[in-house]
Amino acid sequence: MSISRVSKVALSVSSALFLFGCHSSSTDSDPNTGVIPSEQDVLKYVDPFIGTGFNGHTFPGAVVPEGMVQLSPDTELMGWHSSSGYHYDKDTLFGFSHTHLSGTGMGGLGDILFLPFTEDNAKYIEDSDDYREAISVKMDKASEVAEAGYYSVNIAENGIKAELTASERVGFHRYTYPEGQPQRLKVDLNSILNSDWGSTSLRNKLTVSDDGYTITGERDAAHFSGWAKNQKIFFYATFDKKIKNVQLLVGGKAVDGLSAEHISELVYDNAGKPVKRIKADVTAYVEFEQGGSQALNAQVAISAVDAGGAQRNHQAEAGLSFDEARKQASEKWANALNLSIEGGTAEQKEIFYTALYHTKIAPQVHQDVDGQFRGMGKGSIRNGEGEYSIAYGQATEELPNFSVYSLWDTHKALHPLKTITEPTRAVQYAKNLVQKYTESGLLPKWEHLGDETGTMVGYPAVAVIADAITKFPDAFTQAEKALALKAAIDSSTYDNYAALATEWDVPVLDRTLTKHIDYIEKEGFAPAIQRENGEPVNPDYTIESVSYGLENAFYDWAIAQIAKAAGDTSAEATYLARSKGYTHYFDNNPMEYADYGVTGFMRPVMMDGTFMAPFDPYGTAHETGNYTEGNAWQWTWFVPHDIAGLKAIMGGESAFLTNLEATFTAESQGTETPDMSGLIGQVAFGNEPSHHIPYLYNWTAEPWKTQEVVDYILNDMYFAEPHGVIGNEDVGAMSAWYVMSAMGFYQVNAADPTYTIGRPLFDAVTIPVEGGTFKIIAENNGADNLYVKSVTINGNALEDGLFFKHADIKAGGELRFVMTATKSEAMVIQP
């Protein structure tokens, strides 16, 4: 639907077949063949404004599935809400830029900003001495419209209507100016998101062609506060009207000619110490010849490789009118949103399809039409699909290159969802991650446009790889499995640190191949940090020790599955033993924790093996304590690979259930980080480490409580409104949880091809799979009928009544629930 904040108007989309695994993208060279006839116009249920309010950090602009270009309005340039460049509560507009991140807690993009205007240039020239006050205008919020592949808004000051659409590598702009007004455009290479957190421009260059119809340029950017260190972008922009006048500014000062370049420089004090950086700043103020239509059309191609790549991308994709490009974008989204649902309210359908939409923005294509891309490891230029092949012994395989892997967030639900809805992509992602290891020496942790950021916890790529290999073993040769195992081992051992330090930026390496690994290999656990007056008092410690210890134990279990597939029994045994490392952190002491109603917590461990004291299970500190974005209540449950072992160290079945119940009913108190949102007791559902906790009741004698909690989350923590995501959307992670849970099941262990049931939201969901469809049916479903009375898969009872395997999802298959409103009729399975 074309979503207006005043009204919602249905967008008519041509009837289409929903092709499984096919996005009508040049990168999807091996689509699956499952087909569903179009029974509903799914695009009318997509609202890109969902998640743009509160802390969702999504953007409403134009993008196609997996597109390199995310052309969107920028209403926030600094602070946490500038991560996506847009926050719904703002009516400011700095312009429309071509690159964004969806739902993250860190930004740094916002490349190549366009702002149309009619007034005198002077109003739009920033003070060169103080860039903190960037020029902005006001949007007419009532006119704002967003749909899949399209965005438009009117500028209040001057009445210009701005419209945006996109292909994979080209952003299409259409600006309709008021009758008789000058048609002017600001092209800003300096604008960047999160500049207050360290993002800056290092080098800008812009050239206006002699023919007056083309502007080309490039920008080097960096983030000096711990995010992506290097990013290059080249652009090639054409206009359908000739440039009449142009004024170029460098560092806020006018320069002559049609070309300008500016390089960032450091300013030093009298002692020779750098005190600030003057960022590169090139801006063009352009006026176009009038005549004919009041509309100005611009087509902007981007490339991370070079100027020639941007031009070739333009030649391949820009030969369309705005309306043709918009139509193609809609068709690509219609093909991509390939699940069919029956039942549910209109609002539930809107939440579902918008969530599915958000799961398909990234990972994104990161290569030019000729296959070239900027790879990991010093940004070398490599070849991708078409000419891109990886040799595994005698075999070769063509693979596309992708980027924006927010793996700590997305390995938990988004990548498992992809194995169901896009198995071809799931396999390609796993192989692409291994390819990035061959480029840099380590598996990616949080990869950003060919650059490693070292952000978040552990080595989560191994979970994505293990999930794909265990679900699709025949899609990987033995040589590929062996290389995946080597990549996993090299990324989880500390022996290769010294060699990598000669090639990597050391601070980034320290965040990627962390000291926790060294301690865990030598001591079995990561020692805790203890502070007095804000300073560490113990010499041997690691930051966020408990979270790293628990996460790395899970990742080691995933590596054991890769080793098993590769036939390496020795590595399998080694990593299975390492996966028990979580036991070091649990303090089973019912007497001490009686006031909390639990038998124990996962606690920080000192170097001598004792638990850190004093201890507050509510205590947390963002990026400086012993837990990542949470506290002991939440992290005590992060043992998804060995729930039986977790039960044992807690004291058995009864203690496990008692502890779980206490976590859901614990009072809210103590310090909370911004990521600790969506609290249910002390389950912080707004952040990924808590996402599996609602399903843990399925390992108890009261599985109906999972159905109650999942029902509550689906209905009370997701909304068809801008504030409709309870925490950072995290590049599809929050949305993937909703999609899977609304279908009625979830994968608690992201590296194990086993699903457990929850509470299906819709009467029926049809998933195209190779050769046919898999259907989920909920009989007697309804808002109050939230309990599962019985469930079968392909006519058979589920494993232990509550679990089924990925292999059970097949063409012609069926997962059938019978629902009831009566709790006493709900299934009870003795664990």
From TrEMBL:
TM ranges: none
Residue span, Glycosyl hydrolase family domain: 310-820
Signal peptide boundaries: none
Name the enzyme's class: hydrolase
Domain Glycosyl hydrolase family 92 N-terminal as annotated: residue spans: 45-303
As one GO molecular function, the record gives:
hydrolase activity, acting on glycosyl bonds
Q: What is its EC number?
A: 3.2.1.-
Classification via InterPro entries = 6-hairpin_glycosidase_sf, GH-type_carb-bd, GH92_a_mannosidase_put, GH92_N, Glyco_hydro_92, PNGase
Q: Which stretches are annotated as coiled coil?
A: none
Q: Which Pfam families match?
A: Glyco_hydro_92, Glyco_hydro_92N
**UniProt entry keywords in alphabetical sequence:** Glycosidase, Hydrolase
Name by which UniProt lists this protein:
GH92 family glycosyl hydrolase
UniProt source species: Enterovibrio qingdaonensis
